[in-house]
Design brief:
two-stranded parallel ribbon
């Protein structure tokens, strides 16, 4: 006898509603930022951060693209492509033997946590990005765009790039030019070796969790079944013991308001 409403947006759009008390849960592909914390505090919204899995953000190109040496790209080169004053505009800028044709960029829309994560990791500041790219909040749209564009380069979550199969080429990534090239997979993401690895979270309204038995029951159910669920959608699972310990922590009430440490310390 519970009415459940599910809305779709990017992480930032979800926080806009969560931080004014409209939502019980916000799924997030990045941690809450300082401005969002202030908004929540202003609206007397307290919360807790619960990791649910890990993910690698993959760099992908058209499968026929042979213009990237060793199919490996560095964070430095990505930054030169994606900064507002981008200096790497054509494929010949990457390698002088490549044709002088535009690098057509595809990536997450600015309301997405994926956009926030990518820009901070690659460009050094969340939200700092060229506008000269094709954005979408729908990763399937990005997959289709890159798969149909021989001059494309984009970033999409690992689950989507793996599901695309041979429609995309997934690049290895190095921290610096000439550095070690790391391929994105469950092992490198879990170990934190892949440079574009990140955790994924549930943000739960702390006070509603205390007062709504249907909410607390759902969150416990969610975590009790998360191991299989995240694998089913090809997100990298946290250690199995984490989910058991997270449920036990919830049931014991061993967490505090605005808590970003308790559950993160369990794995």
């Amino acid at each position: 006898n519970v009415q459940v409403t599910v809305g779709v947006s990017g992480t930032g759009g979800g926080f806009e509603r969560f931080n004014v008390g409209e939502l019980d849960i916000n799924d997030a592909s990045r941690p809450i930022d300082d401005e969002e914390k202030n908004t929540a505090a202003t609206n007397n919204v307290r919360w807790m951060e619960i990791p649910i899995g890990l993910e690698g953000l993959t760099i992908v190109v058209h499968p026929d693209n042979n213009m990237i040496p060793n199919d490996c790209i560095s964070l430095e080169e990505l930054s030169e492509m994606w900064l507002p004053n981008r200096t790497m505009i054509s494929w010949s800028d990457l390698n002088s033997t490549n044709p002088d044709q535009e690098i057509r960029l595809y990536g997450a829309g600015p309301d997405s946590g994926t956009f926030d994560f990518f820009t901070e990791r690659v460009n050094g500041e969340s939200g700092l990005s060229t506008t000269e790219y094709i954005p979408s909040e729908d990763d399937n749209v990005l997959v289709q765009g890159v798969a149909n564009d021989a001059l494309a380069l984009g970033y999409i979550p690992l689950a989507y790039s793996q599901a695309a199969g041979d429609r995309l080429k997934i690049l290895s990534v190095s921290e610096t030019r000439g550095g070690e090239c790391i391929s994105p997979n469950a092992d490198t993401v879990t170990a934190g070796q892949y440079p574009l690895s990140r955790p994924l979270f549930l943000y739960v309204n702390y006070d509603n969790y205390q007062s709504k038995p249907e909410l607390s029951t759902f969150v416990e159910f969610y975590l009790s079944n998360a191991m299989g669920a995240v694998q089913q959608v090809q997100i990298v699972a946290l250690p199995e013991q984490y989910y058991t310990d997270a449920v036990a922590t919830l049931r014991a009430g061993n967490f505090t308001e605005n808590d970003q440490t308790t559950f993160n310390n369990l794995y």
